[in-house]
Amino acid sequence: MHRHMFCFKRRDAITRKGMVIMKKINRRNFLKVMGLASASLTLAACGGSSSTATSTAASTATSTAASAAAGDAAAAASDPAVSFSVTNTHSGEGVQDKSMDKLIELADKYSGGSIKGTKIAGGSLGGEREETEMLQLGTLECAFVADMGVDSAIGGLGWAWLPFMLTDYDQVDEYYINGWINDELTKQYADNGLIRVAPTENCFRECGNVKRPINSMADMTGLKIRVPETQACQDFYTALGAIPAAIATSETLAALEQGTVDGVDNSIYNMKSMGVLEKIKYITMLNYMYSGASITCSEEFWNSMTANQQAAFKQAADEAGAFFRENMRADEQTILDQGSFEVEEIDPSSDFYKQMKEKAVELWAGYASEYPSDIMDRINQDFSV
After folding, report:
1. Local confidence band at 365 (pLDDT 50, 70, 90 cut-offs)
2. How many CA within 13 A on the CB side of residue 236?
3. Is the pTM of this model over 0.70?
């Protein structure tokens, strides 16, 4: 039985020695197609992109893609045939697999048949670090990858998921999907030989456990929680009095069954994929960390396309990304509705929520030296207490 049900309204380049990326993207053309030129100029001048610049950039991208989709028949006829393979790290016929199908279908449609895609079974090429490096080397054309996974290969992206920076989907859609966070990540990807074409997502990280409901700092104290290797996740639970344990995804279920950990930190969708939800008794909707993701291409593949094809592929990726996010959020709600666990929502006006937010913001200062000062200033301006 659910105790409380609710609706989700809120919802360093490769540094390995010997690896050299030989081709460099024509950055100016890429940013033009992506509709980020005006946002980039504003951020460089002011330490951040204004909402007006962001809106203009988004409008530019939409207009460019729409024009390409409508297509100049003569230009479409002259476009060369190009092909791409796309994959992700999730096996099975879930949202990721369906979204790859959607991308392949739409890229073919909007390019007038000049862009053909092939799907590689999810999880068959390794993890997201391996996929990212393959994209950089040009041995893989396209992948659905999480920003955290890309960060494990290139570094420098952790500012985008500081704990309690984004806490609901209204913020996510405004800042991460359609705003300055997306713009900054896209530029950082390009600086590392990656084309972040369109956002998908991995949703918010929540906390499931087998011990007790979590409604206060006291309830969190002493709980052993499985977390990823992401330092910010570990720091957050430590600050709340819990005991974080970095355990691989594949080992989490066994750790829970053997009592090595009391709970699991991940998105609801990923908890189901990990096979732990049947063991979990209580889920606390902390919404403390949003995990973004994207449809990302190799620059070699991107540069193989004409400007017309790039715009067509951009529109296809935008629509496939929107399809992905809509279905991922709906699937998470279905999992919550049908689960046998108790669900705890934390009221933003509660002492517990305010205490967690204060603890999280205190951690931000410790990360300030790791990231550009203009970005950290913008984070404090937009999301601090």
Report:
1. very high
2. 28
3. yes
